[in-house]
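Re-running POTRA domain-containing protein to confirm reproducibility after the cluster update. Everything else is unchanged from the original entry.
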Amino acid sequence: LPLCFVCVFAQVPSAIKILDVEVEGNVVTTDRMIRYTASLKVGDEVSPGDFAKAVKRMWRLGMFSDIQIRLDEETEEGIKITIVVEETPILGKISFNGNKKVKDSQLEEKLMLVSGQRLKLNMVHEKIQELKTLYAEEGFLLAEIESELSHAKTVRSNDPKILEITKDLIFHIKENRKVKIGAIKFDGNKSFSDWRLKRVVKNTKQQKWYLFWRSYFDT
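Result of re-run:
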């Protein structure tokens, strides 16, 4: 996360007074909450390390995809700063396109997402991987899944601010053909015959051989 104070404080005392704290970019989150979480108040004596700590505290909330602290003015008395944020979207409706072999209800159960929750950074990517795992368990190791965020068509709240950052999440799925094992060959087996090993493999559940191949198809 970029901080604007790395170079600024190279030529100033180790502690400097905050004269003013403004907030920009927030849509739903209040200025008061951002200032409180950052713990940067007018009159505080701060050092460069305090700004890094402020960003970390705000980042832990999971409500922002970008956080910056901008230096607006520097005088002998102190500095004026602005906390600039970009909020993570609020989840609206979830839908699926292209799934024929796996039902919507199965996909929704795997995702464990709830309308109204925050979509934290990297969460959508993680959910795509979970859906690919589900498809692989069903034998569709070649399934392709992409996501799309679009402006929500319907929102429970009448608050225009919430409507502004609420996004519908669409998963576009291309299931492709089901992967089947055509033939199994053994090499180097001395203690057991091919026939005996084939009997063991035949009784092995699908999940077992899937785990063996998963790392290959994820690359």
